[in-house]
Amino acid sequence: MDDKTPQASLTYNLSLRNTITGKWLYNTMAVIYGTNSGWRRIAEPGNVFTNKKWVLTGLPAGTYQWAVQAIDADFVGGTFAGGKTFTIAATDISELNSEVTFGTADGKLVVNNNSGNTLDITVYTLTGNLINQFKAGGYSRYPWSGECIL
Length: 150
Fold this sequence. Notes:
The chain is mainly beta. Helix content is 3%, strand content 40%.
């Protein structure tokens, strides 16, 4: 990578891989690790273009490994930086147990738990403030109003 390309003209490659499945979500078409780190298989801008931040949405639960690479105006890539991991825990109750359903009726939060286990439920406002905590087994109804995160 040259030292003459203005920073505003650099593009970036984001590498993102699920370490559990091995699936690439963002493939850089470049060598990511080792002595050839940064060598590109294609002469094109990076996969996130000139963006210096990138929002990832809809990732399923799992552990992910990421790295980023700067690419100059001649499409030559620098060494990858990062090589870090992050984990997304299961957040959807259906990922935890498909025998549990949630709903609302008559101003109540309704939990129908057919799993045979008692669940610890924590309810937050959309801004992250705690509303209530309770244990749910079988069919249960709890006071509720408005939007919340379980």
